[in-house]
Every structure is written in structure tokens, then in C-alpha cells.
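Please check this one:

***
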Amino acid sequence: ATDEMIKEMIDVVGLANQNNKFVAGYQVEIDKIYK
């Protein structure tokens, strides 16, 4: 991953962490993409 991709992922996770209802569903999508 490039630095830009990593920063983008951190931003997305940071936004998700502001909404706990969103985290559970989005974490599954991250797992699909990065595994």
C-alpha cells in the first residue's frame, strides 16, 4: 500500500470510530478488501 492509501484508510477508520453502529458493518468490508 502507498502512504496515500494508508492515510485514506486511517481517515476512513477514524470516521467509522465516530459512529459505533457503523464500525461493525464497515470492519467486515475492510476485512474483505485487505485479506
Observations:
- The chain has a mean pLDDT of 75.
- The CA atoms of residues 4 and 34 lie 15 Å apart.
- The helical segments are 3-17, 20-34.
